[in-house]
Inverse folding.
């Protein structure tokens, strides 16, 4: 009985997935019913996740670890899913008869992410990662404008399976070098094996699968096309919730890596490249979702700085930043979904006049991009501050200076978004946006969360610190 | 938690924040109500700053009005406010410019509510920075005072406003990109337990090498905001593009944040770094003085003239800071105050003229003093202050800086005084061409400043004359801080 209770957050999502599997078989499409059911199921998942926040234990013969770290991230994942479902009231980009499948895949993907936060067995890590990836491949191709979406999904798929294959190879090398399949065994074996090239290469290759998920350079090439071609809500999901799972497993893998310098050097290089490539490419983007795609690549670079600090401060900072990314990115997509009410892609310039069409959304967009750029007093600043603090404690001052230079570059394109929303006037007068009270409430809450967590981060900081402390016992 | 007496400093911040919230709740259409709410709250803020200035105990000196509360205990971040002889003049300056800025913009009609909301946010950041003694908060306030600049200039500005706003924001954020790593670096090197400046400034906290590195980062980072040559190019462009009140706050107060940051963070925490880099600071400052004066000489836009003269005048501040003497520090802080009031008056006068004539081009204005004698009078008064005429505020600051500079850097001092002569030349030339000479009939029908419109300018002019005649009111305060600071140097 207790074992089932430990597994409750996953079971709640699994239940939701089964429900939508059943609904998908029905003949009549009833989008409203599907939407409400999904809202209820995800709300339930958050409640269950919060209730089992303090749960601890081991399941499935040592291969599934439930600790504060995994539970915090599961709550984040459930919240991410809930937020994305909130946007799904009218998914113009996806045909009505495909709505149950949309929810089904969102649930299975989130379920896989949850498994990823807890699993400590190399093979089940791989399986969980694949489950989440396959759900996403299909989700991307669900969009109505088929040709582009299918092309993007194919690109996504090819990059995905290549990185999976590389990862599997890496896992095999790791197993060959250390004989370990459980992460705790690996944690004991790795420090001793720091001088074995086989093990070091294996560890690095094994991480490639997660780099793909997080869109770290050079596994980022899927991101722009996929972001642009998927339905807005699906892109919102990829940009927010799906990153949390990748961050979770990367942090867990880093915590068992034994602090090898070789790994750190590679991560430093990848971090610098991700930040620079992402930010420089974003400067040239016109399409809003492509811009967010490149900004995600840059954000992945900042996340890596927290991870490569290889210490409890760095992990705590990364967990905090995962929450920050969820809130900031989601707010951007909320605005995007409302502004592009017909489900078509929009360019940055099409945000023109937003400050009159909906002052609240314009403010939410401004706050979220300033937060993404790391300007206080926002949650994004606090997250970056924590990450840089951890890195400087480890003596990586030059890396932080490079990261700050990137922040300046990123401010340029974030300001272009603000400029479009606040300064540009549309060529033809557009009517005020119809924003439902629920959306207004959501946007207002998100802005409040961004500012409050920026001004007074203590509570969340303590939670993420204790979550990170679990990893370095 | 520690509060000594009534928390005046928190009250100043709260007055700004309450004003901001109050503005947000006034209906959009009711522009006059927005202006009155702004005037009341900025007036209250000014009153509080004056009270703090008067209540400060000059005989005792040191940090007063200390307010301390834990904020993020895990990182040793505190809400820690206090004023000393360096920050007190800046608080008073901000209060004056804030209030007069609100009044100067009384005729604004476009998106009034948003304008004042951003304006209040900007000023809140400025006040916070001057009063805070916690490194982390100083950084937060720095950025809070930066990012409203973008919408303020880009929406309500003129002359290439989007370019100016973008350039300014990116330059200043580049400055903060150097400050943040330096701040964290100092925090970590001191053991990672506190951001409290009073604790971190104890001698022996940082090694000489750390101080040199950190001071360099801080000097460049804050120096960008102080328009230190060669990082000054954002400043004239930004001044020109900004709307009047924003130019006033920007040149009057925001640039002082840069110099103040070098003083408060760089020099307080890294005195050895300061001594090491002082010759560089002096050289750069002298180049700035001469360069700013030369550049101003060739401008035809009134706002550009003032913009470049600000570069020159901020060079004087930098020169004062680099002398490592009591006189130099006194002069630098006095000059910061005087220059703040003076540029506010400059931009306030130009704002009035531009609103009426729709031009800031010197050749087009010609003979304006015959049409608008009062408005021209304010500009001319500001020019005389800029030139350093005795009995006007700026004179004392410049005098002290140059005396100190001649002792420490004789060659630099000669060049700096040469720059001052140049600045006298360009100011008088501008005054002569724009305000004297034949009357321009095109503007003959325009009205002069009325009494109501003149209130903010009168306040500024009065302050210039008051501190020009009685510099000791201010100097006594600054002296308490600089004497103690120089004595405490290793």
């Amino acid at each position: 009985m207790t074992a089932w209770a430990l597994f409750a957050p996953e079971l709640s999502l699994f239940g939701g997935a089964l429900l939508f599997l059943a609904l998908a078989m029905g003949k009549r499409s009833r989008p409203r019913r599907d939407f409400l059911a999904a809202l209820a199921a995800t709300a339930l998942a958050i409640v269950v996740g919060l209730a089992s926040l303090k749960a601890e234990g081991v399941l499935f013969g040592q291969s599934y670890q439930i600790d504060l770290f995994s539970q915090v991230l599961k709550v984040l994942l459930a919240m991410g899913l809930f937020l994305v479902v909130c946007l799904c009231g009218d998914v113009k980009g996806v045909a009505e008869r495909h709505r149950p499948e949309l929810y089904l895949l969102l649930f299975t993907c989130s379920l896989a992410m949850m498994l990823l936060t807890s699993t400590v067995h190399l093979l089940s890590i791989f399986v969980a990662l694949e489950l989440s990836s396959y759900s996403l491949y299909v989700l991307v191709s669900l969009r109505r404008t088929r040709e582009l979406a299918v092309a993007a999904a194919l690109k996504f798929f090819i990059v995905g399976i290549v990185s999976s294959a590389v990862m599997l190879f890496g896992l095999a090398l790791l197993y060959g070098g250390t004989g370990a399949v459980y992460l705790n065994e690996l944690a004991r074996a790795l420090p001793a094996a720091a001088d074995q090239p086989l093990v070091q290469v294996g560890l690095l290759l094994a991480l490639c699968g997660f780099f793909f998920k997080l869109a770290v350079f050079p596994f980022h090439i899927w991101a722009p096309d996929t972001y642009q071609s998927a339905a807005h809500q699906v892109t919102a999901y990829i940009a927010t919730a799906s990153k949390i799972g990748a961050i979770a497993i990367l942090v867990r893998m880093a915590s068992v890596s034994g602090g090898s310098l070789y790994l750190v050097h590679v991560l430093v290089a990848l971090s610098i490249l991700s930040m620079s490539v992402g930010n420089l490419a974003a400067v040239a983007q016109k399409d809003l979702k492509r811009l967010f795609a490149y900004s995600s690549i840059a954000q992945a670079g900042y996340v890596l700085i927290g991870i490569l600090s290889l210490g409890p401060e760095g992990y705590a900072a990364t967990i905090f930043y995962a929450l920050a990314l969820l809130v900031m990115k989601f707010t951007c997509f909320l605005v995007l979904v409302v502004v592009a009410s017909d489900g078509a892609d929009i360019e940055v310039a099409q945000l023109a006049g937003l400050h009159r069409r909906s002052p609240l959304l314009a403010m939410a967009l401004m706050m979220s991009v300033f937060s993404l750029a790391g300007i206080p007093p926002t949650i994004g600043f606090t997250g970056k501050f924590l990450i840089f603090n951890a890195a400087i404690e480890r003596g990586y001052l030059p890396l932080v200076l490079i990261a700050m230079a990137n922040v300046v570059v990123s401010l340029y394109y974030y300001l272009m978004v603000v400029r479009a929303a606040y300064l540009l006037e549309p060529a033809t007068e557009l009517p005020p946006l119809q924003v439902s009270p629920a959306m207004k409430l959501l946007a207002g809450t998100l802005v409040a969360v961004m500012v409050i967590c920026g001004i007074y981060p203590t509570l969340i900081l303590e939670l993420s610190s204790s979550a990170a402390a679990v990893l370095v016992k | 938690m520690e509060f000594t007496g009534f928390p005046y400093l928190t009250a100043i911040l709260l007055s700004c924040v309450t004003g901001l919230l109050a503005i947000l709740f006034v209906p959009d259409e009711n522009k006059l109500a927005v202006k009155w709410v702004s005037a009341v709250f900025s007036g209250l803020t000014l009153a509080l700053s004056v009270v703090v200035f008067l209540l400060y105990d000059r005989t005792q000196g040191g940090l007063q009005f200390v307010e301390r509360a834990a904020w993020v205990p895990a990182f040793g971040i505190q809400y820690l406010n206090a004023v000393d002889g360096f920050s007190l003049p800046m608080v008073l300056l901000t209060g004056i410019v804030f209030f007069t800025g609100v009044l100067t913009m009384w005729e604004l009609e476009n998106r009034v509510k948003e304008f004042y909301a951003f304006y209040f946010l900007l000023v809140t950041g400025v006040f916070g920075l001057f009063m805070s003694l916690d490194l982390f908060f100083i950084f937060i306030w720095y950025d809070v005072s930066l990012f409203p600049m973008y919408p303020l200039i880009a929406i309500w500005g003129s002359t290439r406003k989007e370019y100016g706003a973008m350039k300014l924001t990116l330059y200043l954020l580049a400055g903060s990109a150097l400050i943040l790593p330096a701040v964290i670096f100092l925090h970590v090197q001191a053991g990672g337990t506190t951001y409290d400046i009073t604790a971190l400034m104890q001698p022996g906290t940082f090694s000489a090498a750390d101080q040199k590195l950190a001071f360099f980062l801080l000097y460049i980072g804050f120096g960008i905001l102080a328009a230190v040559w060669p990082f000054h190019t954002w400043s004239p462009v930004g001044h020109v593009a900004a709307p009047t009140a924003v130019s006033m706050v920007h040149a009057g107060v925001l640039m002082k944040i840069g110099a103040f940051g070098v003083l408060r963070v760089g020099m307080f925490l890294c005195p050895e770094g300061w001594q090491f880099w002082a010759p560089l600071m002096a050289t750069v400052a002298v180049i700035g003085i001469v360069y700013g004066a030369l550049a101003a000489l060739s401008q035809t836009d009134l706002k550009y003239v003032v913009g470049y003269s600000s570069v020159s005048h901020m060079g004087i501040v930098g020169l004062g800071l680099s002398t490592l003497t009591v006189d130099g520090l006194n002069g630098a802080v006095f000059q910061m105050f005087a220059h703040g009031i003076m540029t506010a008056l400059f931009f306030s006068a130009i704002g009035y003229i531009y609103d009426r004539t729709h031009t800031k081009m010197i050749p087009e204005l010609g003979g304006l003093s015959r049409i608008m004698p009062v408005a021209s009078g304010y500009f001319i008064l500001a020019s005389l202050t800029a030139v350093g005429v005795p009995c006007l505020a700026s004179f004392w600051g410049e005098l002290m800086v140059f005396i100190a500079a001649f002792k420490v850097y004789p060659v630099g001092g000669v060049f700096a005084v040469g720059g001052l002569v140049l600045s006298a030349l360009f100011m008088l030339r501008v005054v002569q061409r724009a305000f004297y000479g034949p009357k321009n009939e095109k503007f003959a029908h325009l009205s002069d400043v009325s009494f109501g419109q003149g209130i903010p300018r009168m306040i500024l002019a009065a302050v210039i004359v008051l501190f020009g005649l009685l510099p000791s009111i201010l100097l006594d305060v600054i002296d308490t801080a600089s004497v103690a600071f120089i004595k405490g140097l290793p």
